[in-house]
Amino acid sequence: MQRILSFALRGIDALPVEVECDERPASGGKDDKTPKISVVGLPDASVRESAHRVRAALCNCQFPIPRGPCTVNLAPAELRKEGPVYDLPIAIAMLRMQGVIGERADDRLAQFALAGELALDGMVRPIRGATSFAAFARDHKLRGIIVPIENAPEAAVIEGLEVYGVTRLEEAVGFFNGFFELRREPPPAECPAPFGAATDFAEVRGQEAAKRALALAAAGGHNALLIGPAGSGKTMMARALPGILPPLSVEEALDVTRIYSAVGGSARGRGLIRERPFRAPHHSASSAAIVGGGSVPRPGEVSLAHNGVLFLDELPEFPRAALECLREPLEDGFVTIARAHGSMRFPARTMLIAAMNPSHAGGFAATPSERRAQEKYIGRLSGPLLDRIDMHVEVRAVGFASLQSRSLGATSLELRSRVLDARGRMELRQGRDRTNARLNGKELDRVCALEGTAQRLLEGAMRDLGLSARAYDRIRRVARTVADFDSCEAVTDSHIAEAIHYRILDRMRPREMSTT
Predict the structure, then answer these.
(1) Residue at a domain's end among 402, 432, 462
(2) How many distinct helices (H) and strands (E) make up the chain?
(3) Nearest to 254 by CA among 154, 139, 371
(4) Residue at a domain's end among 400, 432, 464
(5) Residues 213 and 155 placed together within one structural domain of the fold
(6) Are 218 and 168 in the same domain?
(7) CA angle 220, 226, 228 (to 5 degrees)
(8) Same structural domain for residues 280 and 134?
(9) pTM higher than 0.85 for the full model?
(10) What angle do CA 321, 299, 153 make, to 5 degrees?
(11) CA distance 146 to 127
(12) Which among 28, 66, 275, 306 counts the fewest CB atoms within 10 Å?
């Protein structure tokens, strides 16, 4: 019997799986012409089909197949096995069991873990989760892993591990027998994080107040909702936002790479993902598409936007159930999906940027009937969801003079400089990766102590607008960001006033909606 170490992907984490192969002596019956290969250990359909792929690959590569009935066990048996990742380790286990791979390879086989799908001609095809596989191998003190050549760059982002990519089954056999040298995949080269987005804020005309609001959101990591008529530039500004966000740290980039590797969304042959994700699902997306789910849970859009931006255009048009599912991830920064066989937890710390028209007709209300229609349209959004959005930004229609003006206004480069300066102030005061949006109540009391007119101003807003305790903290967090953006140490009444101004929906909604 022979054992080879591989992995199973559970969420975005890799768990160890031992591939055990055992051959029974041939009975001499007629079935020995095509001895059966049985795969056990709670495999899904694609894993059970590995027997056929492996048999064809061995034959086409001129390797012998087992002469008697062969049992392949994937341990532990209680863990559900999915996908074709076990083809390569099964083939290697069979060849070692038959002596094609010699005894001197045992030490190397014990030091390496394998994963890969086999084509019928012996080619090795890419898999999902190579980055998580590499992290698991490093944590278990293995020397290295062997993966398909297309997955090698994304696996090599994990330091302290030898990563080898193979294109064919024969290369892996030669490597273990010691007569074929595989090229070790180098770690990703150190390079500056990319800057820029498809859209520059300079292309947005006449929306300087909204640009400032989005720059504040970028500085403090705040969720924001843009409210304005069609054609006012809401979508353009949202798509320009990644261009003013700080670059990903190494830890953040690793998290993003693991997520995209687990869903097969990273470009083949690409290493560490350095750009902040920007996800913009259509408003017909289901709850499972937004937060993740399925019989075998997979990350949703909110997890694919981890450490980046989740843009929801036409927010009231999204299914109510899908929007309500966002409440916990926006508050906690992760999604937990429970199923009968267990639960999975996906990271989901993202900036939510949403956009909507003020009414179904598209514009702001001007008459009592239009105001009632506007309230009904806004009523599609629940109060608790809106409470979790720090900033409600009014975006007015662009006038003719602004469209004709040759003045560009604030550019992405200028706004990014101010965002980075504000982030630097936060890091000195609160520590790394502790933006104002992530401050808990005790930290917020320390860094945003209010006195005098600032305290009275916020007290009046709470009373007049019927704000919740959550909205009270949101206002203080945004006010702290406004002060940092304006290079002020203390939070004053002007900062509180601007933060209150970004609660436009609390002024537009009926009072009874604000507490539901």
Answers:
(1) 432
(2) 23, 18
(3) 154
(4) 432
(5) no
(6) no
(7) 155
(8) no
(9) yes
(10) 160
(11) 12
(12) 28
Instruction: Give 394's DSSP letter.
Output: E
Residue 191 falls within a domain, yes or no? no
| Closest to 130 (Cα-Cα) out of 264, 3, 298, 255 | 264
pLDDT digits (tens, 9 = 90+) for 23-50: 887 665 555 556 688 999 999 999 999 9
pLDDT band, very low/low/confident/very high, at 194 (cuts 50, 70, 90): low
Cβ–Cβ under 8 Å, residues 226 and 217: no
Interhelix angle 469-485/208-220, rounded to 10 degrees, is: 100
Domain range spanning residue 161? 2-177
76 three-class SS: coil
Q: Is the Cα dihedral 264, 265, 267, 272 positive or negative?
A: negative
Cβ atoms < 10 Å from Cβ of 114 = 28
Please report where in the chains the tokens 């006038």 appear, as a residue. 399
CATH number of domain containing 157: 3.30.230.10
Alpha helix ranges (H) inside 368-491: 368-378, 383-387, 400-404, 412-430, 441-447, 452-465, 469-485
Contact assessment for residue 132 and residue 144, using Cβ atoms and an 8 Å cutoff? no
Contact indicator for 176, 105 with CB cutoff of 8 Å: yes
Same domain, 228 and 148: no
At 163, give phi and psi (nearest 5°).
-120, 125
264 three-state secondary structure: coil
Rg (Cα) of the chain, in Å, rounded?
28
Per DSSP, the residues of 272-305 read ---SPPEE---TT--HHHHHEETTTTEE-HHHHT
Q: How big is the chain, counted in residues?
A: 516
Q: Is the dihedral of CA 138, 143, 149, 153 positive or negative?
A: positive
* Axis crossing angle, helix 469-485 with helix 412-430, rounded to the nearest 10: 110
Same domain (yes/no): 58, 97:
yes
Total number of domains in the chain: 2
Please give the pLDDT value at position 27.
62
pLDDT digits (tens, 9 = 90+) for 217-228: 999 999 999 999
Structure tokens at 178: 């010691």
User: Is 361 part of any domain?
Assistant: yes
Beta bridge partners of 356: 227
Q: Is residue 196 part of a domain?
A: no
Q: Does one domain contain both 292 and 420?
A: yes
For 150-172, the pLDDT digits (tens) are 999 999 999 999 999 999 999 99
Give me 14's structure tokens.
């890799």
Q: Domain check: are 205 and 166 in the same one?
A: no
Let me know the angle formed at the C-alpha of 90 by 172 and 1, rounded to the nearest 5 degrees. 110
**Cβ–Cβ under 8 Å, residues 348 and 302:** yes
> Rounded distance, CA 252 to CA 448, Å?
27
Are residues 156 and 214 both part of a single domain?
Answer: no
Locate 478 and state its tokens: 């945004």
